[in-house]
Structures are given as C-alpha cells and as structure tokens.
Amino acid sequence: MGYKINTVWKDKMAFNSQLGNHMVRMDTTPEMGDDSGPSPKQLVLAGLAGCTGMDVVSLLKKMRVDYTGFEIDIETELTEEHPKVFSEITMVYRVFGKDLDEKKVEKAITLSQDRYCGVSAMLKKNSAVNYRIEFITE
Questions:
Q1: SS3 state at 17
Q2: pLDDT 10s digits, 43-56
Q3: Considering the entire predicted model, what is its pTM?
Q4: What is the C-alpha separation between 84 and 89, in angstroms, rounded?
C-alpha cells in the first residue's frame, strides 16, 4: 500500500494538496504567506498525533478500557541550521475517565510508540521523540 497525493501551488506560499477525497491547504505566516492553512511541519505533527491516537484508541477498545476522553499535545524544537528539522518532539497523552486502568493505557501507548505508529518510527530516525501520560480522573 502506498499513497498518491497531488499538490498545487495557489498563491504566494499557499498550496492545496488533494489527499484522496480530502483537500488540505498549506501556507506559512504573513511574512511570506497569508496564514491560510497550517504549515507542512505542523501537518507532519498532526499526522504523528493522528497515527498514534488511532493506534491507542484501537488498542484501548480491544483491551476493554473505559475512558471518556483522549487527547494528545505535541511540542517541538527546530534546529537552527537549514534544513530546519525537529530536534526533539515532546508528546503529552492525556486520558480522561473514572477508574482508568493505567497499566493498560500505558501498554497501549507503548505499543503505539514502539511497534505500530509508522509516523513515529519515521520521525524517530531523525529526532528524539519523548512522551508522557497524564491521567485525568473525572
């Protein structure tokens, strides 16, 4: 399985990418663009969150873990030299619920990070990817 994406320049620094049935606009800040969409690097980070998030919710369902909410925050630093790449990525997994089985949640996240999430695996080849888990009791 692979992917085929068509990307078309629109104006200034804006591009539209057709991803299957979905169009995503990319742009940059007002110095060069119009901020009409996220930057390509922001989309990479969103892809990371989506990839690991889908793994985790799928695994939690299989493990029969009851939770009421789940979110991921990501922060990163960029290198000073060009090409500016992520030097370090920090992820915070936040799981909400009552009587959460913390061991199962930790296992699901570890499996995603170490085995299933292809985006994380690709990024780890260049950047440190660190994460922590916050359990929010409701």
A1: strand
A2: 999 999 999 999 99
A3: 0.93
A4: 14
